[in-house]
Design goal:
- The protein has 540 residues and is α/β, with parallel strands linked by helices.
- 36% of the residues lie in helices and 21% in strands.
- Helix 2 (42-50) crosses helix 14 (406-418) and helix 11 (348-358) runs antiparallel to helix 12 (365-378).
- It is elongated.
- The model has no long low-confidence stretch (mean pLDDT 92).
């Protein structure tokens, strides 16, 4: 799976490009999914609703997580399986640890080969709790009387005494699990005593009268081919595995845990394997140190940006396989060659549209509509100085597929998207905010497009206070908010700057708070390059 996403504070161009490129990839045989790095603005939501498209899911980071590893998918067993069956599974699959789960696959505990060995050395040799079915399977026996599904729990008695001694010393009781050969006096006495289970060794057939009596007294009888010594030795292995499973202080990890945090835990604990579970404790598998040596990195495609500061958390730990952008080349780097599609056009959606055309991949109406909206949004209805002939050609073709008049649609889209009603200062400021590095200094520039200028000027003092706070907190050289009036084709400036001449040199005029700069509508083409040039001139 490849995740495709735009920059932080997603706008219509980045979201539309991500959705359309994911559609393109899936149609050309590459599994991909569009994601977003933050909440959608009003304009973008309007576009998605207009063309009946579901919003991409949020992705908070692309750090490698436990679920990205090829950890061991060890089969689980239930708590009522026997120790011997657990051992056989471990031996067959060459594993040393088994997970114990309930009927809902929820992890109850684990058992290791060492746990089984220690039980056989130090366990209670005379205690047994298991199902008759377990005992019959492990001892390769045949049930002659009783219910295989029934559970038995009691003290193991291997009868090697004379009959008189057994009776006199009351060796056999109701809670006894008796192991005996073809000694019919002992067999009859055990049935009379109502023992929990009678195991007859040697494999010789038992007279019918004893079996009838056992069924009448509801005493289970199991005939096994092993001799008494072998059967007695192995009977202890028939206990439920839950008797020895570890449940306390169990070190386990959820599938969504950050690998860095998992590594820290592994430094503290020295076990070989650790259970992996879901957030609901559903068992998934086992992970060990060897799995962390070469972790799988998430594959991602960046659209409408190519800088770490504008992208998702953990991007440096992901595998960037492709970039589709129309901005300047940023600081993103890769360890191997990738597809890097960058064109000086007004919108990333124009580039994505070219991909569809080049590969002759058909466009559906919703995808064409999203691409159209992305271009119109980023070029301010083809009025921005970043607009190119390729953008205009794309709009003409896409409007036909999307079945809309692009000018009418653009006006409706901007009206829906530029309303500031119900938004606080921070929401407006960060609506489309980007941080840039300029000669080892940081510059923060936000831009908001609106037709509601009265709302802005009524709250001018609040905006200036907020800008001053951000400026100090982030240690910016320049903190600037461009409020772009689409109809007047220009922007109002609100700012905080450490150099009193920087903005004057940027716009070639004296700048005051709230000044209107005619013709400035593009942050990328009309502000950032000029800020860099003005800064260079001031330092000369």
């Amino acid at each position: 799976m490849i995740y495709i996403f735009g920059h932080k504070n997603p706008d219509t161009d980045s979201v539309a490009a991500a959705i359309a490129l994911a559609d393109f990839k899936n149609k050309t045989g590459v599994e991909a999914e569009a994601r977003v790095l933050g909440p959608l603005n009003k304009e973008t939501q309007y576009v998605l609703d207009y063309f009946g498209t579901v919003a991409p899911k949020l992705i908070e980071d692309v750090k490698p997580r436990l679920k990205d590893l090829n950890y061991d998918r060890v089969a689980s067993i239930g708590p009522r399986q026997s120790l011997l069956s657990a051992y056989k599974i471990m031996e067959k699959n060459n594993i040393k640890t088994l997970p114990i789960v309930d009927e809902d696959n929820l992890l109850m505990g684990i058992v290791t080969m060492k746990d089984i060995a220690m039980w056989l050395i130090k366990g209670d040799f005379y205690y047994l709790r298991s199902t008759i079915a377990n005992i019959a399977e492990d001892l390769e026996g045949r049930l002659l009387a009783g219910n295989a599904a029934a559970e038995v729990e009691g003290q193991i008695s291997v009868i090697s005494y004379y009959y008189d001694t057994v009776v006199r010393e009351r060796i056999i009781r109701k809670d006894s699990i008796v192991i005996v050969g073809d000694r019919y006096e002992i067999i009859d006495y055990s049935i009379e005593s109502g023992v929990k289970l009678l195991i007859v060794t040697g494999g010789k057939e038992i007279p019918v009268k004893y079996l009838e009596k056992a069924r009448e007294r509801q005493v289970p009888v199991l005939l096994v081919p092993k001799n008494t010594y072998a059967a007695a030795k192995q009977l202890n292995h028939c206990n439920y595995v839950s008797i020895i499973m570890k449940t306390k202080d169990l070190v386990k990890f959820t599938e969504n845990e950050d690998l860095a945090e998992v590594k820290e835990e592994l430094l503290i604990h020295r076990h070989s394997n650790y259970p992996v579970v879901t957030e609901n404790n559903e068992y998934l598998g086992f992970v060990g140190r060897r799995h962390l040596l070469n972790p799988n990195r998430k594959k991602v495609i960046l659209v409408d940006h190519n800088e770490y500061a504008q992208s998702v958390k953990g991007l440096a730990l992901a595998e960037i396989v492709e970039v589709v952008d129309h901005h300047k080349i940023g600081d993103v780097s890769t360890s191997s060659p990738i597809i890097f599609r960058n064109l000086p056009v007004g919108s990333t959606c124009t580039i994505v549209f070219k991909l569809f055309k080049e590969e002759k991949v058909p466009l559906t109406r919703p995808i064409a509509g999203l691409l159209l909206a992305g271009i119109l949004s980023d070029t301010l209805s083809l009025q921005s100085p970043t607009t190119t002939a390729l953008d205009r050609e794309a709009v003409q073709e896409l409007q036909k597929i999307a079945q809309v008049d692009w000018q009418t649609f653009a006006l409706e889209m901007f009206k829906a998207g530029t309303s500031l009603e119900g938004q606080n200062i921070a929401e407006i400021f960060y609506k489309d905010f980007k941080e840039f590095g300029v000669k080892n200094r940081k510059v923060g520039i936000g831009q908001v497009f609106t037709l509601d200028m009265e709302n802005i000027f009524n709250r001018q003092a609040e905006f200036l206070d907020f800008i001053a706070q951000i400026h100090q907190q982030k240690d910016y050289l320049l903190t600037l908010l461009l409020v772009t009036d689409i109809l007047r084709k220009g922007s109002y400036l609100f700012y905080k700057c450490n150099n009193g001449r920087l903005l004057a040199n940027t716009f070639n005029k004296e700048v005051e708070q709230g000044v209107f700069i005619e013709g400035v509508v593009s942050r990328k083409k009309q502000v950032i390059p000029q800020v860099i040039e003005a800064l260079n001139n001031l330092e000369m």
